[in-house]
Amino acid sequence: MATGDHGATEAVMLEESVKAEAKQQGHANDDHSPPSQSLVHEKTNNVEADEKAPSITPDGEEPSDDDKRHLRKVGESLPVSAFLIAFVELCERFTYYGMGGLFQNYIQRPFDGSQGRGALGMGHQGATGLNLFFQLWAYVSPIIGAIIADQYLGKYVTIVVFCVVYIVGLFILLLTSLPVSLAHGAGLGGFITAAIVIGLGTGGIKSNIAPLIADQYKRRKMEVKTLPTGERIIIDPSVTIQRIYMIFYLCINCGSLALLATPYMERDVGYWSAYLLCLLVFFCGLAVLLLGKKYYIVRPPEGSVITNAFRAIWIMIKRRSLDAPKPSYQARLGNSQVMKWDDKFIDELKRALIACKVFCFYPVYWVVYSQFSNNFVSQAGDMRGHGIPNDLMQNFDPIAIIVFVPILDRLVYPLMRKMHIRFPPINRITLGFWVGSLAMAYAAIVQHLIYSSGPCYKDPLCPASEDSSGTAQGNHIHIAVQTPAYMLIGISEIFASVTGLEYAYTKAPPSMKSFVQSMYLLTNAFGSAIGMALVSVSVDPKILWMFVGLSCASFIAGCLFWLCFHHLNDAEDELNALS
């Protein structure tokens, strides 16, 4: 029966029942008296309302589309194992930034036998070039770690193995940074060897520890739940994953605060003392990683996932079709060749490629991000420090993150979800690009102020700025003026970098978590390569225009990123349907 006929029949039946009620109540004297029209309308409207009322999804079931539009999405508490892994990452980042933050001075300034003045004496350009080489290698090597983890050892064992590699590199750096080693010319060779070994170690850890921490959370599908207050909510795994990576990034930046200590150790004792502290803290992280093994959810390796993925991608390119590697597709073409994968594997690979495609604009952002650990340090050295080491200013980057992450995670994002204001990953990443653009614009303003100040103007650290001991003091502008540039970089990381980690995990199929994470990290290597190409303009007075150019590039990249990928916002829940 048609819906309209059904509704009309019910209306006639209602009218007849009303007539009967009216007779019984004495409201009509004969069968021809008009029925109570208000009662007919009331009951008819009630039937229509019942027909239109949405069905209530039982607790524990997946939400309907109507639920997703009207119910608040919330996350869950994190497992203890996630916090243990976050602590391991804190220790690794303490080591990485605690030593890496000193590299610019270590390479740039000459060794003169005194404490903390320098080591290799390769100048501003040489320091920036070697520093960027280290960063490039540290973000290429995650591919090696991903292949070993996904195909052979699994994430946990791979992390342990690369921790040992990391420790070997730290020992090389420590021993060759001793004053006696520097005096005998072992500094440069030791640094390059240590940079290669440490870069390999950190890469193997980075590609696996980010997906490992999210693996500790088991839920993979949305679920409706009624709170004790009576409010119906949706438990959304993507909200919890977002929180995991916010906390993960918070721990990364707590580790970054190593730069509160190591610049003073560099200045007052020597570089070797700072590198020794980093080594000891790294041992603490390794101890927690080993002792906490029984608490971790450890997934076994998936076999030849990475190599099969590259073979399938090659077939996609040759055939110009994403479905070309599917056995079913090949069968329709009459190809009897036996593939090493099934149709589901290709569907998962296509999903992984969506995530990788989103990362194509990230190298521009990483060029901007890398400025805080090299050119910003040199810029601070061109100003009056007033007792503050120039590489100490880097701490304002993690401080900004430590302040704003809890505000966003506990106040801003929950309020936006409660008000049903969408702020999906593509929009967050776009905002990260734009805030990075502001950081570069401010850095350009600071550089202009330096060039406008005496005694050296556009030639900072000239002999006119030297004190009685012969140490150049920089132009007459306070080093604190640089603070907002670091803080803007930090805020941009919350939107661009944290969301990138989240996107790499949530959009990757289970068998390719480390692989997609390594592809995301590889974009940082491309950023370092671009930065190396810009070394020739990282000198006075050209560097001002480099900052201006990076500001424009980051803003334009953000605009193009949104134009290319904003349509993925509408498919966010579908893409997050983790298997």
Automatic annotation (TrEMBL):
Residue ranges crossing the lipid bilayer per the database entry: 132-149, 156-176, 188-213, 244-265, 271-291, 352-372, 429-451, 485-506, 518-537, 543-565
A Pfam family recorded for this sequence: PTR2
Compositional bias (Basic and acidic residues): 16-33, 40-53
Keywords recorded for this protein, A-Z: Membrane, Transmembrane, Transmembrane helix
PANTHER family assigned to the protein according to its UniProt record, in alphabetical order: OLIGOPEPTIDE TRANSPORTER-RELATED
UniProt similarity note: Belongs to the major facilitator superfamily. Proton-dependent oligopeptide transporter (POT/PTR) (TC 2.A.17) family.
Listed name of the protein: MFS peptide transporter Ptr2
Species lineage: Eukaryota, Fungi, Dikarya, Ascomycota, Pezizomycotina
